[in-house]
Amino acid sequence: MTDAIRDPIRVGLFVTCLVDLFRPSVGFAAVKLLEDAGCRVVAPSQTCCGQPAYNSGDRGTTKELARQVIAAFDGCDYVVAPSGSCAGMLAKHYPELFADEPEWTAKARAFSAKCYELVSFLVDVLGVSRVSARFDGLVTYHDSCSGLRELGVQRQPRKLLASVEGLELVEMKSPDVCCGFGGTFAVKYGELSDAIVAQKTANIAASGAPTLLAGDLGCLMNMAGKLQREGKKVAARHVAEILAGMTDEPAIGEPKTEARK
Amino acid sequence: MSARDDILANIRASLGVTGAEAPRRFAAKERLAQSPEGVIPRRGQGDPAARVATFKAEAERAQASVAEVAGAADVPNEIARYLREANLPATFRMGEDARLAAMPWSETALEILRGPSDGHDLNGVSAAFAGVAESGTLALCSGPDNPTTINFLPDNHFVVVFERDIVADYESVWRKLRERYGKGAMPRTLNLITGPSRSADIEQTLLLGAHGPRRLHIVMVRDG
Amino acid sequence: MTHQPTSSHFKENAHEALRDAPLQKALVHVRSNFIQKRAEAAQRLPEFEALRDSARDIKNHTLKHLDLYLEAYEAKVRELGGEVHYAATAKQGLDIILDICRKRGAKTVTKGKSMIAEEIGLNDALEAAGIEAVETDLGEYIIQLRGEAPSHIIAPAVHVNKDEVENEFRRAHLHLPKDRDLSEPAQLLGEARGVLRDKFLNADIGITGANFLIAETGTSIIVTNEGNGDLTQILPKVHIVIASLEKITPTLADAAQLLRVLARSATGQDMSVYTTLSTGPRRPGDPDGPEEYHVVLLDNGRSSMLGGEFEDMLRCIRCGACMNHCPVYHAVGGHAYGWVYPGPMGAVLTPTLIGVKEGGQLPNASTFCGRCEEVCPVRIPLPGMMRHWREREFERHLSPTTVRAGLAFWAFFAKRPTLYRLATSFGMRALHLIGRAKGRFSFLPLARGWTRYRDLPAPQGATFQSQWRAKSRPVA
After folding, report:
1. For residue range A232-241, what is the model confidence (pLDDT) as tens digits?
2. Mind listing the pLDDT tens digit of every residue in chain B (224 residues)?
3. Are A90 and A14 spatial neighbours (Cβ–Cβ below 8 Å)?
4. In chain A, domain spans
5. How many other C-beta atoms lie within 10 A of the C-beta of residue A156?
6. Does C312 touch chain A (CB under 8 A)?
7. Which C positions 188-247 lie with beta carbon below 8 A of chain B?
8. Are residues B68 and B145 in the same domain?
9. Helix, strand, coil percentages in chain C from 3-state DSSP, rounded to 5
10. Side by side, which strands form the sheet with C248-249?
């Protein structure tokens, strides 16, 4: 934990559109983790980081959305997202997006420098080394591509998970291989995406863990959806939910009643 | 305009240059003249004994077999031994290389064929220009006395390398070539050979002896 | 060309590939072997990452001075009695080669593995001119018998199983007795070795590609494991090298840097078995080697890539690591890409060579997982360049109208945060109510592309932003 006596660090939560719309509990778990670490959390009015447009080749729309995001988080010391993919967009792609606009390049660079993925922010910036949470059972962890390759998120979640009481991590085969989500790819090339996620769910099931964790809701929705379609009894959750000890909500794609049995 | 002129003009247009810019010309000329060396792995470095040990280990890793003999005079016996133990005919082909010619072949019962291979030789013997410790690689130069065909056509290839010629890295081979042939000059063919021929094209099963030699036996000569 | 591009049918090709049982069986090998071997080789060399930087820098420097190094290379080859021919297009390249063949009255040509020869459709042109072209790389030989294009740039027959190889050999090798056992890969290799040995010894001309062309010495370098490239170039009276412009490398020292990352990235070897440096034709007194030495330098659109957003692609040294690590390639193999170059490097290169209209699907068929860039020995930003292609398609209105319409609809809301909050707040509550009993949807009309293959989780209810505001938490 930080022993800052100064004003608390002001963290803007970039909640991500998928968490905002589908699984707000991940957002609240992120808030809890940040507040426990001594941050003051704000959540400015927001929509999307622009990735769907960016990856579809629509640079114009992407820039408009990027400008909107940069303005919305203007007063924050840090911008933190519970997603490696969206954080990667903010931290790595915004500067290159404005490479042809000198006055915005500097702004985008300054903005990007304060953007982090949630778990790596906790560990690398705030120096958090353990959490107070309990989760009984085996879990396996999928490394989402952008977080892993753009931001180097790999040991941080494992480090914090190791401090969760009752939790044991078993690695699946090839945890660093793509789940086939790829944003709009999952829909534009559904059949191909399905073939890729099928490899993933086979590895998940073979790990023997009844719970799958990851740091990106997009990948989680893809893997959970496939596991459920295949009838594989693996519950999928965002890693923040476990680290925050907030597992009251049913796992991704599971009904409320079942969870309350 | 010829295709050549078209292509050069298009390259220059794309790069936004005329080709006459002095700094560019200087940069290219300097690089060609200086041949700056980049990152050199530590693996092959060390004193001569360390280089020899690394060379041997790396060559064996690449599935060559390696024997060490005390002097040039011991080479014929080593090759005769290998052929005998592998149940191979006591016949081989080699070029006119002076280093090989000076060896006491008549002390063995080996039959020697001279000149380039016609593709029907079982065994071939060559002398290496150098050995490279970092990857267990042999460097062989073509020339009137060293037919290149012997390096590829026989089933079993024997290469003699003198330990004083075992260098740390490829860059050292380039330097050695420069000493022998002059800056910017090369033998017609330089073969860098690392282990025996192989293919994994059928179901990724690694098999030795695809088109070149099935076996590569390296005879390291301690002094001479 | 027999191999007309089918890249514009990538989706259909992929659909078939996913149902091709022998192919899927063969792809299992790709998914594990290459990756593990590369990782081990990289691990074993502490300087590997520094060498990747060095390799990238050498390539960048060369491309920025390509005209000058080309001139230096050409002068050196000529000085040693070799001939250099420039081909602006595939057609010009073919004409040059056919012309040499005609002058020598060539009937049989042996070929080392060359992706440039595939790119210009050399085999078909030779056959059309009545010249027998024999591929000598075992994998290339197998696919030549099958009448196919390579499915991988360094393992062209990686999609073929051994039983299929046996069938091809039995069909093509008329001398084979019926009872000859060919059930093991070693027996198949022995059979091919015997047949091809005769071809090597009787060929009139040998054609190889080149991994590097050295300006300092006028040398062409080929890298093989089988030794077929060497037998192709030392036995016939004429050796023709066909290579694209960007193979130019300033010095031998530069080549050493590139060689150190090439084999490690490709097969996980420290060095390929045969790295052969050829400089000019046979010299006085030489007992073997070709009497004539020709180099055909192919542009085919590459000079236009310089200075632009696809220049980085010209660093590629054709190791295949990008496809070996690509989840899309792993799922469908190389033929689905529909032309010569598969995988991530193919997805970037193909549209530059055959046009974005024909090849534009390929850069879209990527999850942007970034594993290709992570392993590329010359650090080509492959996903970034695939994105550049998507941008070009979007600008030129080549992307599908449904995609554009969907994007525009979404963007309308995404650009209006207040409206977005209202709409999503309402929409998610509604969706929650519909899906809450099961917790997910196995069918949803507007998300058919998703629910056809996997369930879609139902939203939890109120959006994060509406809950946050309801709790009067800070928004600034």
Report:
1. 999 999 999 9
2. 799 999 999 999 999 999 999 999 999 999 999 999 999 999 999 999 999 999 999 999 999 999 999 999 999 999 999 999 999 999 999 999 999 999 999 999 999 999 999 999 999 999 999 999 999 999 999 999 999 999 999 999 999 999 999 999 999 999 999 999 999 999 999 999 999 999 999 998 999 999 999 999 999 999 75
3. yes
4. 10-123, 130-256
5. 22
6. no
7. 188-189, 193, 196-197, 200-201, 215-219, 225-228, 230-231, 234-235, 245
8. yes
9. 55, 10, 35
10. B166-167, B130-132, B137-141, B189-193, C274-278, C219-224, C212-214, C248-249
Distance of CA C345 to the CA centre of its chain: 5
User: pLDDT tens-digit profile of C209-251?
Assistant: 999 999 999 999 999 999 999 999 999 999 999 999 999 999 9
* DSSP secondary structure letters along C80-115: TT-EEEEESSHHHHHHHHHHHHHHTT-SEEEE---H
Q: Which domain holds residue B10?
A: 3-34
pLDDT digit string (tens) for A151-188?
Answer: 999 999 999 999 999 999 999 999 999 999 999 999 99
Tokens of C281: 């034709």
B41 within some domain: no
Strand stretches in C303-391, DSSP E: none
Burial class for B90, CB neighbours closer than 10 Å (0-12, 13-18, 19+): middle
Q: Which residue of A has its CA nearest to C419?
A: A47
* Contact by Cβ (8 Å): C63, C246: yes
C463 in A contact zone (CB under 8 Å):
yes
CA distance A24 to C288: 75
Best of B6, B189, B205 to substitute, by most chain C Cβ atoms within 10 angstroms, is B189
Whole-angstrom distance, CA of residue A44 vs CA of residue A73: 7
The domain A130-256 is placed in CATH, from the list 1.10.287.70, 3.40.50.300, 3.10.129.10, 3.40.50.11810, at: 3.40.50.11810
Question: What is the DSSP secondary structure assignment for residue B169, as one 8-state letter?
Answer: S
Distance (Å, whole) CA A41 – CA A80: 10
B186 close to C251: Cβ distance less than 8 angstroms? no
Report the alpha-carbon angle A121-C373-C400, nearest 5: 95
Range name among B93-107, C72-86, C105-119, C398-412 with the lowest pLDDT average: C398-412
- Shortest alpha-carbon distance between residue B99 and chain C (Å): 18
Comparing CA positions, the residue from A121, A51, A52 lying closest to residue A89 is A51
B to C CB pairs, distance under 8 Å = 269
Q: In this complex, is the C-beta atom of C358 within 8 Å of any C-beta atom belonging to chain A? A: no
CA–CA distance, C34 with C25 (Å, rounded to integer): 16
Report the mean per-residue pLDDT for chain C: 95
- Residue in C closest to B189 by C-alpha: C278
The owner of tokens 């007992």 is C287
Tokens of B45: 């470095």
Do B and C touch, counting CB pairs below 8 Å (3 needed)? yes
CATH superfamily of C7-304: NagB/RpiA/CoA transferase-like (3.40.50.10420)
The reported pTM is 0.95
Chain B CB within 8 Å of residue C37 CB? no
> pLDDT band at C400, cuts 50/70/90?
confident
Q: In degrees to the nearest 10, what's the CA dihedral of C420, C426, C429, C434?
A: -110
